Amino acid sequence: MDTLQNLLSRLDKVRSSGSNRYLACCPAxxxxxxxxxxxSADDRLLIHCFAGCSPDEILGAIDLxxxxxxxxxxxxxxxxxxxxxxxxxxxxxxxxxxxxAFLEIVTSGLRNKEHVTDxxxxxxxxxxxxxxxxxxxxxxxxVEK
Length: 145
What we know:
It is a single chain. The chain is 41% helix and 17% strand. With 145 residues, the chain is an alpha+beta fold. It has two domains: 67 residues, no CATH class; 52 residues, no CATH class. A four-stranded antiparallel sheet has the order 1-2-3-4. α2 crosses α4 and α3 crosses α4. The chain starts with a helix and ends in a 12-residue tail after the last helix.
């Protein structure tokens, strides 16, 4: 299955909106009418949620990661500078903090029997997968409704 068909097959209410362009319901939030734009450009797919969901949240909600947007793995042509490595480490630290905080808010809400939406559950699952992938969270911890 090619990259585009793999993505589209996991989405709801997919419709064409032009040449190599599609609209679908965003899986990362409760979406009644399509707010996710998908377009095919050369060897990659571009996705944008008009409600503000990040690509990581969108892909995580359908059990994919960023590599699913590319026909072939990206190749770096030159090593990163020290400044680039520091910036990337800082960005990863911020992402880990945000994912941890969101996961704690959702699990706390579930423990306290507060209303937690399916979209929040999906985002919490994506945050959990991310935290597990970077070794911050154990594989056996659960996020359930």
